[in-house]
Amino acid sequence: MLFEKIELEAGETVLKVARKHWFIITSELLGIAVAAILPLILITILALIPNFLPETLHLDSHLPLILFGISSWLLLTTLVMSMVWTHYYLDLWIITDRRIIVIDQIHFFNRKVSSFRLERLQDIKVAVNGVLATFLNFGTIRAQTASAAESNFMTSGLPEPRELQSLIQKATDERLKSLHGAAAQAIID
Amino acid sequence: MYNIAEVTGILPIHDISLLAFYVLAGFYLVFTAILYFHWNEYSVSPAVSKITAITYLVITLPLLTVMGLATFAI
Question: What's the complex ipTM?
């Protein structure tokens, strides 16, 4: 399992595990589901319009072939759906009290795992763009670190982005306080 | 009996569907292995992995069975 591989430090606590908003996965799965039932709808329409097919062609006599075609199509669309679900579920932000781990599952065998410590966080930006994103409360979070290479971490479609931003900000403040004590408190204030 | 000779002039439809079935079954096996690897390696919740595996098998295995039965009925 993933947490065993990440190897959290002694005393490190996971504050939140965030995945993309349910609307993102629902809309993707719904699109595939519509594509999946399309042949069934076509066959039903063909069967309901008696004069549409040539007289020599009877659907009943081709039943095994139709069954084979439909079940193959349904199997392929189910595989696509499970792939989409896997990418959705394995794509996540893990926020601990010490660092942020951003896992970007782009495809099978294309996975980026980035981690940065909260004390290196320079800026965290939130963008909520569009009517649906505003009403359903999801958006893009972009975190910028002090590191020279790969200093931007961005994920779109994250739920409750402002709450997530505030959680990260609070965790960063706490981290700085614990590392630098009173001096950090003075900077925060 | 279907005669694909009208379409290809080479193979009967039964052979083509049988070939398609074997190719799809092979692809399914490879895909399932990849899926299992990802969920086993990267999942954060064993419960979700289990539910996903059960749902996947409950949907795909009957489809594969229907495909196989239809292939041999053609």
Answer: 0.86
